[in-house]
Specification:
Layout: E1 2-6, H1 12-16, E2 38-45, E3 48-55, H2 59-70, H3 72-79, H4 87-94, E4 100-101, H5 104-119, H6 129-134, H7 147-154, E5 162-165, E6 170-173, H8 186-200, E7 206-210, E8 214-218, E9 229-234, E10 242-248, E11 252-257, E12 262-265, E13 268-271, E14 287-292, H9 295-308, H10 310-318, E15 324-330, E16 336-342, E17 349-350
Antiparallel strand pairs: 1-16, 2-3, 3-7, 4-6, 5-6, 7-8, 8-11, 9-10, 10-17, 11-14, 12-13, 14-15, 15-16
Helix pairs in contact: 2-8, 5-9, 8-9
Length: about 350
């Protein structure tokens, strides 16, 4: 299902030139009107704020939520590439020399990433670090690389360069220069781990988010007539306004976009989401939102679908009924926004309430 909406304050040209201030990678976590009292517990990790929202007046649930937030520090230690003693750092240092034994849950995450890489024809890839460095995004100082620099970076990119041995639970790289970065899946994985702990502690109703771009919902928001939890998605050309609302019921949501990380060169805008198959920034969407059973998969597929575009995304989702996607793209006119919804024709996606 597609529809077009027209902006009256910002235009596609404003977005491309960086003048829009709507945060297209951050869903607006607004509860529906009539929601009951909630308590929100927050922790800073992975360069963003993680938040747990719970029905109020449940001290036991709040304590379990604090325990879940305590998971973030060891998970960040494990997955970051910015600390010398992290497990992922050790893998990146040693895996081109010899196989490295990996903690079971992290190994399972790498197996998921490799499967999604195959399923998306290479659009989802954890080895794009060399490309980010070539384009200057790893230091947030964008630059335009030469064709030779892109080709050199591409030689070290591809999950086919990563060898996973399930019997011995090891990871190895086929060549030096390959490295793993979990930036498109790590926050979602952290939410999945937090949700496991909350469920094991008997907490049934909660909403989690990491950086407001990764969301996981379980049970129901108190005081609401609609099922689950309502999430508002931002209008890319109307700062502070919602484009629409979606109900999450025991599901996760991930959003990818390049509205906050980009640079301009020669009057052209270059976003940080790079196609690992050709080494160049992807154009064509303001942002992409994916609904999936787990937050790790929602995060990873949001990046993949941004790269793949509407038609290939539609084909992918056709074989997996548990997935849904919303692709927000420029319309025909300069101030139009075209929304492609896939797998959401059952009333869970709607225009914002007036």
């Amino acid at each position: 299902m597609d529809f077009v909406t027209r902006a009256n304050r910002q235009s596609r040209r404003d977005f491309l030139q960086g003048r829009t201030v709507a945060p297209p990678t951050e869903p607006l976590l607004e509860m529906a009107r009539g929601a009951g009292p909630l308590v929100s517990l927050c922790r800073r990790a992975m360069a963003c704020d993680f938040d747990v929202q719970l029905p109020a007046n449940n001290a036991r649930a709040a304590q379990v939520a604090l325990d879940a937030l305590d998971l973030l520090e060891p998970l960040e230690d494990q997955m970051t590439v910015y600390r010398d003693d992290g497990e992922l750092v050790r893998i990146n240092r040693q895996a081109a020399v010899e196989p490295v034994c990996v903690e079971p849950r992290l190994f399972a995450l790498l197996e998921l990433a490799q499967q999604l890489h195959r399923d998306t024809d290479g659009a989802m890839d954890l080895t794009t670090g060399p490309l980010s460095r070539a384009w200057g995004f790893s230091r947030r100082q964008g630059r335009l690389p030469s064709d030779a620099e892109i080709a050199a970076a591409l030689a070290d990119v591809g999950m086919d360069q990563v060898v996973l041995d399930a019997t011995n639970r090891t990871v190895a790289f086929r060549r030096p220069g390959v490295s793993l970065h979990l930036n498109c899946i790590g926050k979602g994985y952290a939410l999945d781990r937090m949700a496991e702990l909350l469920a094991a502690g008997g907490v049934e109703d909660f909403l989690l988010h990491g950086g407001r771009s990764s969301v996981l919902a379980r049970g129901h928001c108190p005081g609401r007539e609609r099922p689950g939890w309502t999430i508002g998605l931002p209008h890319p050309l109307r700062p502070g306004e919602r484009l629409g609302e979606i109900d999450l019921l025991d599901q996760a949501l991930g959003t990818s976009g390049s509205g906050t990380q980009f640079f301009e060169h020669g009057g052209r805008r270059y976003g940080h989401l790079l196609d690992p198959r050709n080494g160049r920034p992807v154009e064509g969407s303001y942002y992409v939102t994916v609904i999936a059973p787990t937050a790790a998969e929602a995060d990873a597929l949001a990046t993949a679908f941004y790269i793949m575009g509407p038609e290939k995304t539609r084909d992918y989702c056709a074989s997996r009924s548990e997935l849904a996607a919303i692709l927000v793209r420029p319309g025909d006119a300069d101030d139009d926004v075209r929304v492609h919804t896939i797998g959401l024709d059952d009333g869970r996606w709607r225009l914002p309430a007036s």
